[in-house]
Amino acid sequence: MRPYRILTYNQISARGLHHFPSGRYVVGKALDEPDAIILRSHDLHSTVIPTSVKAIGRAGAGTNNVPVADMSSRGVPVFNAPGANANAVKELVLGALLLAARNVVPALQYVAGLDAAAQDLEARVEEGKKHFAGCELRHRMLGIVGLGAIGSLVAETAIHLGMKVIGFDPEITVDAAWRLPSSVRKANSIEEVLKHSDFITLHVPLLASTRHLIDAKRLEAIKPGAVLLNFARDAIVDDAAVVAALRAHKLKSYLCDFPSAALIAEPNVLALPHLGASTGEAEENCAVMVVEQVREFLENGTIVNAVNFPNVEMPRESPYRVAIANANVPNMLGQISAAMGHAGLNIHNMVNKSRGEMAYTIVDVDSPPSDAVIDGIARIDGVLSVRPIPTEPAS
Known about the structure:
The strands form three sheets. The protein has a seven-stranded parallel β-sheet, with helices on both faces. Strands 2-1-3-4-5 form a five-stranded parallel β-sheet. Helix 3 (86-101) crosses helix 6 (149-160). It has 14 helices and 16 strands. By secondary structure, the protein is α/β, with parallel strands linked by helices. The protein has three domains: 1-85 and 279-309, Rossmann fold (3-Layer(aba) Sandwich); 86-271, NAD(P)-binding Rossmann-like Domain (Rossmann fold, 3-Layer(aba) Sandwich); 312-388, Alpha-Beta Plaits, CATH 3.30.70.260.
């Protein structure tokens, strides 16, 4: 069999790409008929995705730049790397907290505007510092909206600094709940977090339900003089509403990773150029994680950390495997089993899991499935994709 072909966009960490064995994979930026795509920020919405693509790997957490719904309709899993950049984002949030608490940026701007040759330079320094007196983080309340991999790390770090922490996350997973420090106070709503927090940091994905999660109405509930931090996604916050809250002195300052025309000229906004995951370590971690996931899918049909498929894995007990993505509708397994039975294939083992409207099935059979069997399964109403997986990875 020919080697698997991996099309890359953006600059993907070489350490991650090295996890594609050179004898079994061809990796490059200009490949015809790729089996998979690995990318970071490239916008696939404006790109024609070849029909040969069986998987897409986003070396990061968000998948806004990938047409996930279209890929789902084609039976193509979209993998991401949740948690791989968590430490990098956590450290940037910590830096932002300190900058805000001690008014570091306006103080730096004040010093930069001083005349180095002035005779009264020392007096001006002493006179100026009183305008930038800040507060200590110890005993202050940090509100966290979103308690996943990043939010829980931020909570733990804040507690070590002596802060009190209140958090809200209606979608918290069991694993995330176990990671969360026991001293975190659980809020019943976002409004409760906003009402009681001196600093608020957001760590939720951008979904239809979280777009403009922080809007004018919610900012009415915020504690006067609070500081808002957004190092998650730009559209989670309504920029116009934040500017209005700043100008009304309802909000002290806004620190984010997403400059926009509405924010850049505002004196109480610190907007960074999307630095959240911009560390060598985070880029490597994301690339390694997503490459391993794409490899496992191509070579064994395993699904881990796909945003549009259930997690599915099954140890190989037979040299012949078939992977099938299908709509989550009744009698699908019966039709697949019948198609294999009519062809004389003995099913050795099978696993099927669903996630919303999507289902995924792995079947191990005792003899090689013919092209006719694969084509027959593909014609079943509701089957989105089907492929036989070689006994050994491509060589």
